[in-house]
């Protein structure tokens, strides 16, 4: 496991590394401040941010980094202001622990955070796929309606024609339907 520990306090960072003793293989790298370029080069499995109290810059940097390159992030903070935990979670932090950094807690918290991250990542991928499938279905329905109107075909024949075009060209049904709609728009003089 590759762990990037971001903490200006080297003693606290050493406590995180101590909590991971026995994890094999393990590579822990310490940074005083978060730097996405360095993090990308290291390619950590998890990022641990420890601090007295998280500041807005740290949370903003994590938000940018996790949107571009999602990965589990754990924050151990000594104290927290109201609303900061919510901001951290919205920025992509998988676990936010207040006044809870001890060597014995590090490994279980990281394991839970990594599992939670994987589950949330799977949900995001499923949602993206569902939205793409829905958009494709809407496009197919619009293409069927076009064929029904322009060629006077019943719905089942319009669908079979789209499916045959899809199989003949080796392209997804949604892509064939989108092309048909685009060509119909060009032929009708629709510039959109």
Task: Spell out the key features of this protein.
192 residues; alpha/beta; Rossmann fold; Arc Repressor Mutant, subunit A; 2 domains; 5-stranded parallel sheet; 5 strands; 61% helix; elongated
Characterize the structure shown.
The protein has 192 residues and is of the alpha/beta class. The chain folds into 2 domains: 2-101, Rossmann fold (3-Layer(aba) Sandwich), CATH 3.40.50; 127-188, Winged helix-like DNA-binding domain superfamily/Winged helix DNA-binding domain (Arc Repressor Mutant, subunit A), CATH 1.10.10. It is built from 7 helices and 5 strands, in the order βαβαβαβαβααα. The chain has helices at 10-19, 36-42, 56-68, 84-90, 103-151, 155-169, 173-188; strands at residues 2-6, 27-31, 46-51, 73-77, 95-98. A 5-stranded parallel sheet has the order 2-1-3-4-5, with helices on both faces. Helix 3 links the parallel strand 3 and strand 4.
Poorly predicted regions: none
Overall pLDDT score: 90
- At the fold tier of CATH, the topology name of the largest domain is Rossmann fold
Number of strands: 5
Helix count, per DSSP? Answer: 7
Structural class, from secondary structure content? alpha/beta
Query: Largest sheet, described in full?
Result: 5 strands, parallel
User: In percent, how much strand structure appears in the residues?
Assistant: 5-15%
Mind telling me the C-alpha Rg? 25 Å
Distance between the termini: 50 Å
What is the name of the CATH architecture of the largest domain? 3-Layer(aba) Sandwich
Shape: elongated
Strand order in space, largest sheet: 2-1-3-4-5
């Amino acid at each position: 496991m590759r762990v990037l520990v971001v903490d200006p306090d080297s003693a606290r960072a050493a406590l995180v590394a101590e909590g991971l003793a026995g994890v094999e293989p393990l590579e822990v790298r310490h940074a005083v401040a978060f730097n996405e370029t360095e993090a990308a080069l290291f390619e950590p499995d998890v990022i641990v941010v420890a601090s007295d109290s998280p500041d807005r810059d740290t949370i903003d940097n994590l938000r940018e980094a996790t949107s571009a390159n999602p990965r589990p992030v754990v924050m151990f903070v000594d104290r927290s202001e109201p609303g900061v935990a919510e901001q951290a979670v919205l920025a992509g932090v998988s676990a936010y622990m207040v006044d809870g950094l001890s060597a014995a807690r590090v490994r279980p918290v990281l394991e839970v955070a990594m599992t939670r991250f994987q589950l949330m990542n799977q949900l995001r991928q499923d949602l993206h796929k569902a939205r793409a499938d829905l958009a494709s279905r809407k496009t197919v329905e619009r293409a069927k309606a076009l064929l029904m109107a322009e060629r006077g075909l019943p719905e089942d024949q319009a669908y079979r024609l789209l499916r045959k075009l899809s199989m003949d060209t080796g392209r997804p049904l949604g892509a064939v339907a989108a092309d048909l709609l685009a060509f119909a728009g060009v032929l009708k003089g629709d510039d959109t």
